[in-house]
Description:
Elements: H1 2-26, H2 44-54, H3 61-64, H4 70-73, E1 75-82, H5 85-97, E2 103-106, H6 117-134, H7 145-151, E3 155-161, H8 165-170, H9 177-186, E4 192-200, H10 212-217, H11 225-234, E5 240-243, E6 247-248, H12 249-254, H13 256-259, H14 263-286, H15 293-301, H16 304-317, H17 321-335, H18 341-358, E7 361-364, H19 366-375, E8 381-385, H20 391-402, E9 409-413, H21 421-427, E10 430-433, H22 441-456, E11 461-462, H23 481-491, E12 499-507, H24 513-520, H25 530-535, E13 546-551, E14 555-556, H26 557-563, H27 573-593, E15 596-597, H28 599-608, E16 614-616, H29 617-633, E17 637-638, H30 640-644, H31 646-659, E18 663-665, E19 678-681, H32 686-695, H33 701-712, E20 717-719, H34 724-733, H35 746-759, E21 763-765, E22 772-775, H36 777-787, H37 791-806, H38 814-830, H39 842-854, H40 863-880
Parallel strand pairs: 1-3, 1-4, 2-3, 7-13, 8-11, 8-12, 9-10, 9-11, 15-17
Antiparallel strand pairs: 4-5, 4-6, 12-13, 12-14, 16-19, 18-19, 20-22, 21-22
Amino acid sequence: MKIISFFSTLIKKTKQMYAKCINYALGDTGHDYFTCFYPGNTGCITSFVLNRIFSNIRLDRKKTQRLLHLNEKGIVIYTGKYKSLFDFLYFHTILKNAALPYPELGFDLKFFFLLPVKRLFKIFISGIDFFLRTFHFKDPYTTGYITGELIKGRSGFLSLFKNKGFYKRFVQSETDPLHYLINFQKQTTRPVFFVPQTIIFSSKPLRTTSTIFDILLGSSEKPGKIKRFLTILRNPNKICVEISDPINLKKFIADPAMRNLDTDSQAYALRAYLTDVLNTQRRSVTGPVLKSRDEITEEILTLADMHDFMEKYAKEQNQPLIKIRKEAAACIKEIASNYNLRIIHLFDKVLTWMFNHIFEGVVVDENGLDRLKEESKKAPVILAPCHKSHLDYLLLSYVMFKNNMPCPQIAAGKNLSFWPLGPIFRGGGAFFLRRTFRGAPLYSKIFSAYIEKLLSQGFNIEFFIEGGRSRTGKLLSPKFGLLSMLMNAHKNRACDDLLFEPVYVGYDRVLEENAYLNEIEGGNKNPENLSQLIRARKFLKTKYGKVYIKFGKPLSLNAYLKEKKLNPATMGNRDHKALCKSLGYRLINSINSISIVTSYGIVASGVLNCPRNRFTKKELMSRVQSYMDLLIFFNAELADTLTIDPDYALNKVIDTFISRKFIELADESDSEITEDTRFIVKDNKRPALDYYKNNAISFFIAPAYTAVAILNTDTFQFAGESLSETYRFLQNFFIDEFSFDEDKTCEENIINCLKAFTDQGIIVPNLSIPDTYNITSEGYRKLKCFAGLLHPFLESCKVALIYFETHPKDKHDAKERIKKIQSLGIKMYKKQDIVLKESLSKINYINASTFFMGNGIYGSENNDLIAEYKKKIERLISLSAC
């Protein structure tokens, strides 16, 4: 018994001594030591090294705003696609320095080589002690360690996929972190927030085939250690960090579709959802997976409906099928882009150098660009910019690439496919289309299939809603061909939705100014070729002011169809055409609404509306101020130069106009420009000034219509309701010149303009008679100032109408008709039957002819109708004359 008692006492004392040793070794903090916890206090050297490595990898502050106070609302779990110690350490270091919730728990991560020796010793002792007591290895999940740390408010880092992860979960029954967190969420009231994040080491799109470098160094999606190290060493600025909106797990599992599923199914659905978010996140930077032209050709030509179409077309043309197939392959070769990241990087370097030489700055709507990037994760984006210059598509792709977005696929005219620019543009994402598809059914079918293929793969597409470049400075009427194809692709389920993004691209000065003036005055358009490219060197010797890029609010096609109460599946051809027209004008109006008014446009408007081509600086600035006041009232966006220092900006434009001989000093001996300095407008420079005036004219059209309607009452006191008839006539008369918002009535526009005129003191309400106004003495002059903006367009209409009055129907074809109208206009200008040089505009004549022929005037046979319009136009010209 004594021996038993002795050994019992000895064992007891040994256990006590062992417990004391363990407690002494582990301290008073308990036995919860695991390699999945990274405290961050790893010593000065480690912290210094990590900060040095990560400091050059930018993390946009806008993206971290969504993390502010997130840990106060719930438990934060940063989520990546692949297991990555690098990603964990980056977010731990950067977010900790920024005083944001940072990860400390690494689900399935182990930090052996980063932990201090003392902590590693405690982990080892704790693990040995646990094993000796339970004969099991210590696990942070089953011991409740993870739960305890999350309850304390620590943030975690979770990877959705790791090597053999599915096998270990499915076969070896390892704990699935998502399964664990779902169960944890069901037991706590605090929500768990998953924050999807991706560190993208290369903006290079994924390809369907791997190179030898991808095999050795890892793909761009999952780069190896060497590839990461080289990127950090050589191009840290190329690394992009993306953070998406937090996903609330509490709401996710409470969704009706998730609520009745078991935990395993919920975990599977959650992993799929998070993976989709992360894939979309990456695609927003790199773009979709790229396929070769051969792959695209094969996929399009082997479509069942394409095969049927070619067989039918071959029979109709009485041609062998092999010849039709060859023709179809040639069509794809003519159309398809050949996106190449090397060419994109070359563009980046060349355009950076070029833009720095010719522009004083590129002003980008950063908030709109961020919104576009987020929206692009939902559906393919159809960028619809205005088209003022060949630089438009270069600028837009350049800005998107610089802001970690994939360059869009650009619909370019076939005239730009000449060597050497054609292959270069293809490499930058351009695909080419003919000016007309008429008489080419096979080409049209191939082109439609190509558009559907781009959308089905998730590419963003850029096309110009105006069709071609505007030679007049204002937006042209929309063209519906490509727009119709895009809507048909959506109808054919190439994509679930389309997001149309209106974009304004504006210039202080446009490079093609002289060419545009030549074309407006009747000159032929010079085709793009290599010699033009060589001569373009001269542009590098001149500064062209600033460029402005503004992004509007994206328009969902699904939402637009719902608004119009239309179903694509049951929509007939007539409804389709009406929808295309409505959407086209909606996009044009959206671009107009986000246009940025420059000092060039305002000063040009003031100069052209001064009577007798002579004016003092004081008179000019009075008109300019009237325009500025109206723009401010309507909340139009002014160029930064006008908001920072308007006086300097306006005076600088006057100096520029003098140096370019748009205006001249009446007295060349004037040593300085004062308020009384007199200027002369040179007649042959008026069309150039008109181009810049038209850049800002969209904001003045409704006020101009209203001003003419007021003047047409021919009295200093008028009723608001009396203006509608004249306003409506002008709106319909200039339907081909100026678009209007179909959702606003004439009466609403008039009311808004009357408020603006009242604010400026142009009119004052009559206190005794409702809806009645009196024109002030100064107001009459200002009304003329706004009405004068329509004067050149009215004179152009007068010339066109006289042509129809003097020529019978079908006397000339369309081209010859415009030439005859131009010739007539020159004669009338010389005889002073019209007084403005800018009225001699080929574009104005085309629009006027379109209107008259669309309203029953085809020639001298329509005398009664011509006389009616002639009387109205003469009256309107007299009202708008300054």
